[in-house]
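Hi everyone,

Forwarding the result from last night's run.
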Amino acid sequence: MTTSLIIILVVIAVIVLWGIGIYNRLVQLRNQVNNAWSQIDVQLQRRYDLIPNLVETVKGYMAYEKETLEAVISARNQAQSARHQIEQSGGPTEGSIKDLAAADTAVRGAVTNIMALAENYPQLRASENMKQLQEELSSTENKVAFARQAYNDNVMLYNTAQQEFPTVLFASTFGHHKVELFQVEDQEVKKAPKISFS
């Protein structure tokens, strides 16, 4: 074998190994995004599971607030539908994350409305069941916020890796595309919900 052939084979091997390294790094980052998404999904499901309990707890006390109760159930169903759409598409996409963020905004608003109205019902505020639901909802909101932060951090790393040179030359060829951050557009919703029955 000639020296030039050996050099060519070494260069080809280095390029192939380098390409494998880029591919593996992108796969690892995409899997981290998917894992972070599944953590959000678990917390959102927990929140959506708590909503029927909340409605049932307040229903007896808030007989005249039927529209508010229906609004929270409707918002929950829309959010569940957006969540299932992400599941069926195999993970978050740009459009599906925006749809879920909008539905999530509606859920938070509807739950906040119920909590605000509950302030007008002293017997409801004193209910042990309501206090427990309040604590669970508050805890779940914190977990959703932490999961969303972890997801957005992983998305940022993944998107940045795709934009860096030389990875940018191969990312789309390997089937990697930008992932949308899970952001809330409504400035009022970005504020933490106040849930208090004291």
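The mean pLDDT is 87.

Cheers,
N.
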